[in-house]
Write a structure and sequence with these properties.
Pfam families: M20_dimer, Peptidase_M20. This protein is of the alpha+beta class and 376 residues long. The protein is built from ten helices and 18 strands. Helix 2 packs across helix 4 and helix 3 packs parallel to helix 4.
Length: 376
């Protein structure tokens, strides 16, 4: 590990420069042209640092997905990371203050992608094992739930000996993510009858009133004792104060720790009925990401990470978190999966999103050690 760390320390300025380059290529998930332009920058980094070209999988509505393969030997180690972000172009600026580097998507998760590139480059340049059997799966729609890349990830990750997800570490503790909740997304569209709120309100059927009742029904599905949450994150409806509302809409997020809870929630949500028979209720959505559970193989993977961490001066913990990632898909395939191997920092999806510059080399070395097959 000393040789790897020394090499990375010598190239710390280059790693940071690459992170800035990728972050500067802004890539909001719903802007295909911007995401694809960012993908081209990412391809340039892979070509420059690892001398490997992308296998491009075009997508019609989302950014193109990129696969990079090194060595071709087996067993395969798969690294997963996305390059889309939640930020519209121009919303955040790239800046460095007091040892923190701020920018759109820098923590979630462009710094992690760059660290992964340099982890493999360190092994390659030092002629150490581990880089000859690596596949990078870089997708462009993770922040949307990976609608166009889930099957692509599952296809190319299948059979992997180990999967490393370079999403950020747990904020504050730097813990790795050994388990995640499954996630779901639902839309409810309500159509009522408009009427004048003063002259003939009885002729109307309020979609907003119905929406309020559906919110209560959805909230009743929460089961915190089982780790289940149902959140109505967006509620909108109506047109004017003096009109009985004829339309309303809800956007709902669900989180579960088990497939049984996922099935319960899906059935309950899809079976919701309007309280006012004059209101039409249309429901769409699904439980998208399955829960990421820690298997015996995944526990062994974490034990290796903890061993390598100790050599680097890190005391690593394994955490179960509420957010989902593409690691949920690979874990559901039975593949040993370890998440949170990207950068450290804070502010995911927040305006103060940043990474801790001083910890970039250390976290990059951790991934390099895992890829090299370092064992206790």
């Amino acid at each position: 590990m000393k040789a790897i760390t020394l090499y990375l320390e010598q190239h710390a300025a280059d790693i940071l420069a690459d992170i800035k380059t990728l972050v500067a290529a802004e890539s909001p998930s719903d802007d295909k042209s911007a995401v694809d332009a960012c993908g081209e920058v990412l391809q340039q980094l892979f070509q420059q640092r690892l001398n490997v070209r992308a296998e491009i999988t075009p997508q019609q509505h989302y950014g193109n997905n990129l696969k990079f393969s090194l060595g071709g030997q087996t067993p395969q180690s798969t690294i997963i990371g996305h390059f889309d972000t939640v930020w519209n172009k121009g919303e955040l600026t790239l800046r460095e203050e007091e040892g923190r580097l701020y920018g759109p998507g820098i923590l979630d998760m462009k710094a992690g992608l760059v660290q992964a590139i340099w982890a493999v480059r360190a092994l390659q340049q030092l002629d150490l094992p581990g880089w000859q059997n690596v596949v990078f799966l870089c997708n462009s729609d993770e922040e949307l739930g990976s609608p166009g890349s889930q099957q692509w990830i599952e296809t190319h990750a299948r059979g992997s000996a180990q999967v490393f997800v370079v999403e950020p570490a747990v904020a504050g503790s730097g813990a790795l993510k050994v388990a995640r909740k499954g996630t779901g997304r639902y839309d409810l569209t309500l159509t009522g009858l408009a009427a004048h709120a003063g002259n003939n309100p009885e002729e109307g059927a309020s979609a907003v009133l119905e929406m309020a009742q559906q919110i209560l029904a959805l909230h009743a599905l929460n089961a915190p004792e089982r780790g289940t949450t149902v959140n109505v994150g967006v509620a909108s409806g109506g047109s004017r104060a003096n009109v009985v509302a004829d339309r309303a809409r809800l956007e709902v997020d669900t989180r579960v720790t088990s497939e049984e809870e996922a099935a319960r929630l899906h059935a309950a949500i899809m079976q919701l009925q309007p309280h006012d028979p004059r209101v039409t209720l249309h429901i769409s959505g699904e439980q998208g990401r399955p829960p990421m559970r820690q298997s015996a193989a995944s526990r062994a993977l974490f034990a290796r990470a903890a061993h390598i961490g100790r050599q680097l001066g890190l005391t690593l913990e394994g955490a179960s978190v509420g957010g989902g990632s593409d690691g949920n898909f690979t874990a559901a395939l039975g593949l040993p999966t370890l998440d949170g191997l990207g950068a450290t920092g804070a502010g995911i999806h927040a305006r103060h999103e940043h990474i801790i510059v001083a910890e970039v080399v250390q976290r990059t070395a951790l991934l390099a050690g895992l890829l090299s097959g370092e064992t206790p």
